[in-house]
Amino acid sequence: MPACKTTDQLEPTVFVIFGGAGDLTWRKLIPALFDLSQDRSLPESFAILAVDRIKLGDAALRRRLHDGVNQFSRFGRAKEAVWSRFAPHIHYQQGDFKKSATYAALGGQCAKLEKQWGAKAHRIFYMATPPSMFGEIPKYLGRAGLARDRAFARIVIEKPIGYDLESARALNAVLGASFEESQIFRIDHYLGKETVQNILAFRFANPLFEPLWNRRYIDYVTITVAESVGVEHRGGYYDHAGALRDMVQNHLMQLLCLIAMEPMVSFDADEIRNKKVDVLHAARPIHRDQVPLCAVRGQYGSGTAAGKKVPGYREEAGVATDSQTETFVALKLFIDNWRWQGVPFYLRTGKRLPRQASEVSIQFRAVPHRSFPPEASLGWQPSRLVLSIQPVEGIVLGFQAKYPGPEMQLRPVDMRFAYRESFDAPSPDAYETLLWDVMKKDATLFMRADQVEAAWQLLMPVLEAWSGTQPGDFPNYAAGTWGPESVQGLLERQEHRWPAPTELRSPGMHGRIRKKEN
Predict the structure, then answer these.
(1) How confident is the model at residue 282 (pLDDT cuts 50, 70, 90)?
(2) Pick the catalytic residue: 251, 281, 496, 510?
(3) pLDDT above 80 for 42
(4) pLDDT digit string, tens, across residues 168-204
C-alpha cells in the first residue's frame, strides 16, 4: 500500500466501515482519518474498506470522499500530492449487510491485506448504518468468524443504543453474543471534545476546585446543549426519536456523569467508567406520577432564526403534520449521595433555540453573611463557574470585585480560559480523538453496556408518562426562543434561574464575555 504520514505506535489496521458510501463516512469518518494521517497518527500499514449496498467503484468513492475531506478537514482543502498518498488506502466493497457472502468476501480481503503486509492486522468494524442494522451486522460478523480473535477485532456502534431500556438490553445481548465487552466501543462524539475531556483534568488535577465540588458550596448545576438549527435532513429519523432519546439519554447523561462522579483511583478506563455508572445508580428515581414536576417537553413552531423566518417542526420534511414528538426537553435530577444530596441538576436541550451553545454552569452558594453596606452590593451575583464546550471551548469563572473609585462598590467580573488563546495547537475533531482511541483499544471515552442501560432505566418513567399522555399545546415555543414558558417553573420553585449561555469570544475578534439571565 502507498505510504501516508504514519506512526510506529500502531500495528497494521484494517478499518471496515459498514455504510461506507453514506453521509457519516463522507462528513466525519474519512475527514477524521485523513487528518490523523497528516498528524502521523495512523499505522504504516492500514486500509479503509468501505462496504455498502450501492454499485460503486474505488475511483468513484475516492472522488466523493475527496470532496468531503476538502469541506470538513481541519487542514482545509487537501493538497493533491497529500490526497494522492492517502486515497489508495481506500477500497470499496459492494454487498448486502444481511448476506453471508458479503462477510466472506470481507474476510478474504482482510486476509489478502495481511498477506501483503506480512503481519496480522487489527480489524475495526464501524457501523455507520441506520440503527436497524445495529442488531444484524454483529450476528453476521460472528458467524463469519471475523470477531473470533478477541485481541485483534473490535466493533464501533453509533447512537442510538436502543430505543428504550428493553431494546438497549436486546442490542447489548446481540453485541455480547459475538464480541466481548472489551471489544465493543459505543461512541458518543461529545466525549471526544476537548472541553468535555478537560472536565476530568480541571476537577482532579487542580486542588483549588475539587474541595468546593460538593453540596456545601454548590447551590445548583445547569447543563445546556442548545441547537439553533432545526431537524434539517433528519426529519424522518427525528420524528421517531425526539429530543429525550436523541440528546438526553446520551450526550447530557455523559456530561452529568463527568460533573458528578467521584475521584478515580487511576486513569484506567474501567475505573473511570465505574465512577460514571455510580452516578447513574445514585440518581434519584423519577416516579411516573412525578414526571410533570421534574420534566418539561416542547416542540418548536414557526419563528425567526438568524434574522430569517423559519418553519415550525411540523412543516419540516419527513415530519408528520400532527407530530407529537418533542424537540425540547428540560429535566430536574438529584444525585442521592453524600457529595450531592439536595443539589438539583437541571438539564435542557432543544432545537431552534436562539443560538448554538453547549455548556455546564456551576452556581456556587451565596456568602452566608454580607458584611458590605447595601449600596456596595448593587448587581451582586453569587460566583459561577462555566465550562463552555461549544461553539468556543473554554472556562469562565465569575466573581465579585471592587469597582474603581473612592466608594466600596462591588461588580461581577470574569476570569476566563479559552483554548484558542492558551494553546498554540488546534483542537482535533472529536471523531479524530475517538477513532485514535479505538485504534489504541482505549475505552476510556466510550460507553459500557451497564452505563447505557442505567441511563435508559433512569429516563424510562419520563418516556412512559409522555407516551401515555399526548401534549395538548404543541407547538408551544416559537423558533428562536429558549423553549416553552413552563420550563421556568422547574427552577423557580427553588428560586433558581436558567443562566443564559456564556458568550466566550477571542479578543482578536473584538469580543468579550457577556452573561445575563434568561
Answers:
(1) very high
(2) 251
(3) yes
(4) 999 999 999 999 999 999 998 878 777 777 888 888 8
- Domain range annotation of the chain: 13-158, 191-425+452-509
Non-local CB neighbours of 8 within 8 Å, separated by 6+ positions: 44
Q: 308 vs 503, which has greater pLDDT? A: 308
Candidates 2.30.42.10, 3.40.50.720, 3.30.420.40, 3.30.310.50; correct CATH number of 13-158?
Answer: 3.40.50.720
CATH number for the domain whose boundaries are 191-425+452-509: 3.30.360.10
Could you give the C-alpha distances from 200 to 186, 336, 413, 421, 458, in angstroms and in order? 20, 21, 25, 21, 24
Clarify whether 251 is annotated catalytic: yes
Confidence of residue 114 (pLDDT cuts 50, 70, 90): very high
Cα–Cα distance measured from residue 442 to residue 170, given in angstroms and rounded to the nearest whole number:
25
Check whether the bond before 475 is cis (ω within 30° of 0).
Answer: yes
Rounded Cα distance between 152 and 188, Å, is 22
Do 275 and 261 contact (CB within 8 A), yes or no? yes
Give Cβ neighbours of residue 310 (< 8 Å, ≥ 6 apart).
230, 302, 303, 304, 352, 479, 480
Do β-strands 328-334 and 344-350 pair in parallel, antiparallel, or remain unpaired? antiparallel
- Indicate the SS3 state at residue 119: coil
Bridge partners of 350, per DSSP, are 226, 328
Backbone φ/ψ region at 306: left (φ over 0), alpha (ψ -120 to 50), beta: left
Grid coordinates representing 181?
465487552
Nearest to 279 by CA among 332, 335, 344, 195: 335
**Can you read off the three cell numbers belonging to residue 155?**
466493533
Tell whether the model's pLDDT for residue 44 goes beyond 60. yes
| Residues contacting 117, CB < 8 A, separation 6+ | 1, 12, 45
Q: What is the chain's percent helix, strand, coil content, to nearest 5?
A: 40, 20, 40
| Beta carbons within 8 Å of 301's beta carbon, 6+ residues apart | 312, 313, 475, 476, 477, 478, 479
> What single string gives the DSSP state of each residue in 412-423?
EEEEEEEHHHH-
Please tell me the distance from the alpha carbon of residue 414 to that of residue 416, in angstroms, as a whole number. Answer: 6
Dist. CA 316–CA 501, nearest whole Å: 27
